[in-house]
Design a protein that fits this description.
single chain, 208 residues, five-stranded mixed sheet, four-stranded antiparallel sheet
Length: 208
């Protein structure tokens, strides 16, 4: 029979109960093994741990065992990972249990200055200054990450527009970047110093 573990959290341990029933007319010793399903990519998964790898069961009785699975922290959401638990005795497979994990979607984003000191720039009036940023999708699914900004403080009467470009200097449409899981992208916040005078300044807060 199949067991579906949905919404499995990365970096979690999931315990599955296995019931071994002897439907024969004499005591029998059963052996358990766990193997990845052929179509599953289990790279990064630790070998599951069985509470017992063999058990002797009297006729018309059952014994419960457990299998412990550790979901890797870098598991990708939306990809099923399956394992086969096989129960055999006297060299014959008596039963099989399929365990299928569906990893929960975890959304996580990091936005940082590309290097120390890059968060303070100086420019001339009616020119542009560029702030190098590093955007990371640290979640486990494809995500469209929106950028927003607001003034924290400014000394100019004029607003200094801000826009965003990618590493190829192409404008980021709608201030949103679609990123693969566990990926990063260098971007630039470009501020146009329209108007203002010597010594004028503005501070922005940029969030993702």
């Amino acid at each position: 029979s199949d067991t579906l573990i949905d919404d499995a959290q990365p970096n979690s341990t999931e315990t599955v109960t296995i019931s071994v029933t002897n439907t024969g007319n004499g005591p029998d010793t059963y052996y358990l093994t766990i193997e990845p399903k052929p179509e599953s990519d289990t790279e990064g998964w630790a070998t599951p741990i069985l509470s017992e790898t063999s058990v002797t069961v009297e006729p018309n009785q059952n014994t419960q065992l457990t299998a412990e699975f550790t979901v890797p922290g870098d598991s990708i959401a939306g990809i099923d990972v399956g394992w086969d638990i096989r129960i055999s005795s006297e060299g014959v497979e008596r039963d099989r249990k399929d365990i299928v994990f569906q990893v929960a979607k975890v959304r996580a984003v990091e936005l940082k200055i590309a290097y120390e000191g890059a968060d303070q720039q100086v420019g001339r009036r009616d020119t542009e200054v560029r702030f190098p940023l590093l955007l990371r999708n640290t979640g486990n699914d494809v995500d469209t990450i929106a950028l927003s900004d607001e003034y924290v403080d400014k000394t100019t009467e004029e607003d200094w527009p801000i826009r965003y470009v990618d590493e190829n200097d192409e404008d980021i449409q709608n201030n949103a970047v679609t990123m693969d899981p566990f990926s990063e992208a260098p971007i630039y916040a470009i501020v146009s110093l329209e108007g203002g005078g010597r010594g004028d300044a503005a501070t922005y807060r940029i969030t993702a």
